[in-house]
Amino acid sequence: MNHSENFFSQAQKVIPGGVNSPVRAFNGVGGTPVFIDRAEGAYIFDADGKQYIDYVGSWGPMILGHNHPAILSAVLKTAEKGLSFGAPTPLEIDLAELVCQLVPSIEMVRMVSSGTEATMSAIRLTRGYTKRDKIIKFEGCYHGHSDSLLVKAGSGALTLGQPSSPGVPADFAKHTLTCEYNNIESVKQTFEQYPDDIACVIIEPVAGNMNCIPPKAGFLQQLRELCDQYGALLIIDEVMTGFRVALGGAQQYYGVTPDLTTLGKVIGGGMPVGAFGGKKEIMQYIAPTGPVYQAGTLSGNPIAMAAGLACLTELKKAGNEQRLAEQTEKLALGLKALADKHGIPFVVNYVGGMFGIFFTDQPEVSSYQQVMKCDAEKFKQFFHKMLEQGVYLAPSAYEAGFMSLAHSDEDIERTLQAADKAFAEMK
Ligand code: PLP
């Protein structure tokens, strides 16, 4: 037994499934999860000291790479002054101003401690503001695990075959209407059915919780138009895509303006931070300026704010956005070329600093149905062959991969060599 196997059997006795978030348990790929000891730059090191090139990046936040000196020193310096006050601090203003500057549709922003809190609060706000109860989400999209949103969800819920969870009262779930991603007709029909009842449409602008599905040309714009036509608000959930698809998020990349945006992951630089923000008039509808209640003991935590601020300050330096996209493209095109060389039916999607691989002979993968037709067994084989060779991919066929600024050309080359061998063995 190696250390990870030992830890896993110990953990399973006191933590359900041995993990504090389901996909970490490797249910999607089988085998024992790797227990991590430390991380540096593009690498994580397991409890046995083995090094892996990491394309998970803590599920997105580690966009600068692990243990970045700017974030580390901001965290240490801030911690010396106290861990939490439950009272306002200037750091919160600094991060809020930077977020508003980077994402112009955000005029005001409220910090929370996770993406789940961000989307849950944003949904409540749209319901309070519009005085309507129903919401539209898309099958295969994941927006955290609050009751209204755990309906036909992606991510771990999809990996574990639990897209709609027991424990969500039917009386709540009935207000969540689900449409097909990249199918505007399905949204039109839903609005026609409930013209006066829909508070908001919430969408992942690039669906990263059913692997990586970019929006079809015009899809997000058409959503915006339908929302305007029916008096519903548009929430673009940029928890995953924010600062990653582009500095101004996927909304900047695709040129669509939401009413509200939700953020998480990168905004905290590795500390627990989420945020929701948007039009001033709507944001002022939350307490204490408005009637919709929302709060948090650790919201705006100084160490978390300092980490987020350091992360975004570093990320926005000239050339970084472009480099992240270029490295992602290099990896994506490299994988595709190798799969072709070995005659393995394969599709790769990528945008900005995220990518997704699919084992399939379909010409493209742009819908939930197409994702579900891909060969998850082949993915499992590939995953383990890469893991053996020191490449850590997301342990599920339904999760996006993440590039960081720490990934060098050499790291990508090593990844491609590993893939070459993996594909050769899979033929
Ligand atoms: N929204 C999106 C698009 C996400 O990808 C996630 C998490 O993966 C969430 C919301 C929930 O964020 P958290 O896990 O921080 O609660």
Provide structural commentary.
It is a single chain. By secondary structure, the protein is of the alpha/beta class. The protein is built from 15 helices and 14 strands. The strands form three sheets. Strands 4-10-9-8-7-5-6 form a seven-stranded mixed beta sheet, with helices on both faces. Helix 9 links the parallel strand 8 (233-237) and strand 9. Helix 2 packs antiparallel against helix 11, helix 3 packs parallel to helix 11 and helix 7 runs parallel beside helix 8. Pyridoxal-5'-phosphate binds next to helix 4. The site of pyridoxal-5'-phosphate (PLP) has 17 residues, from helix 4.
Strand content: 5-15%
Output the helix-strand order. HEEEHHEHEHHEHEHEHEEHHHEEHHEEH
Mean pLDDT: 97
Shape: globular
* Distance from first to last alpha carbon: 30 Å
